[in-house]
Amino acid sequence: MKRKTVEKNDAVKSVKASKGKRGISGTSKESTHLLHSIVQGFSIPAFVIGKDHKVIYWNRALERLTGIPMSEVVGTNQHWRSFYAEARPCMADLLIDGVENRIPKWYAGKYRKSDLLDEAYEATDFFPALGEKGRWLHFTAALIRGADGKIIGAIETLEDITERKTAELTQRESDQQVFSIIEGSPIPTFVIGLDHNVLYWNRALEKLSKISAKDMIGTNKHWRAFYAKERPCLSDLVVDQTLETIPEWYGSIAKSKLLEDTYEAEGFFPDLGHSGRWLRFNVSPLRSSRGALVGCIETLEDITERKKADQLIIDSERILHSIMEGFSIATFVIDKNHKILYWNRALEKLTKVKAADVVGTNQQWRAFYAKERPCMADLLVDSAMERVAKWYSGKYQKSDLIEHAYEATDFFPDLGDSGRWLRFTAALIRDSHGDLVGALETLEDITEQRLAEDTLKRKSKSPT
Question: Which end of the chain is more exposed for a tag (fewer CB within 10 A), N or C?
Fold first, then answer.
């Protein structure tokens, strides 16, 4: 573009110099030939008109652009035919007539004064009648004055910028599409550039933060939505590529398993909303087609309700653990994989097996038997009711109180110093959807009761 501009300026100077020395009609064939060669040698399409608006020169580049040969227009004022469907002035015509005030009528919003040439204007416009589908042209018109300073003509140069303009329009459409996608996304999102200024701030984020896009776009104040005092957001750290400082600002952060160079974190924001909100946020760098960093996009998910639900589960588990620990009845709970979830203090005292030694294992049998074998709870978890009789023949019955539960009484010779009698009940545990999650088994030491019953039996049988 720079080369073309220099070429254009030099050409205008050459035309002015030639006209100043010889006059527009040409007193020297040699000078006229030189001028003709200069204009014809332009790689930029160009034409020259005289003060009477008739075409003096029409170069080969312009022939190629317009499809109109020089022979059809030189000596006429029909140069408008190349650009418009109907007769109307070109920019060069307006300058020759000295009616710059009429330029806005024909080129409103499309023109400006040249920064390089005096008495010159440039403009960009679309010409639907040019070529098969129309062409975008950038054109400059400049006056040509003689040695006496009088206007003797004008030169207009034209550059076909259709490909560049199409690319710009395509990019603009792409940007608009991206904007529409971000704006319409239900996920709160903002985008910052390398200068940390906000480029996008969508409606979902407006609703979450209570800060409008118009108050945020173009500023670097995005921190206001999340913090009481100014500090970097995660996207700022990624834009600055100061990744080593991330742990200073965000304790728990992880790299995304799905996207490269993307970071994920969550945290509680006490200044967001009435009582604070939990947010999960993701930050991804934005790169150009050549891989250069151009900004960052940060998406935020309000996970407050999920966090509250998680906390309720934690609180429920704590309560359940406290209840289990407070049971005076020895109890253990296993999951559907037979792993021990709970082993309360009463069971520790009964079996002399510590919870720390068995929780998380499937070694519950160790407390009751010398060799590995299933407990009642294991059989229920496996839905192996037919095997209950094998292991507890004549000792068990279905519970009268609890559905899908069995109870039994048995002597455990390996329990305690001389064995213990236990009455135990095993019941299935299901979730709110009715799916199996495990089983609970309670055990009651009835040794003293059993010994007392045996003593009474012996006494009743002895002669008085």
Answer: C
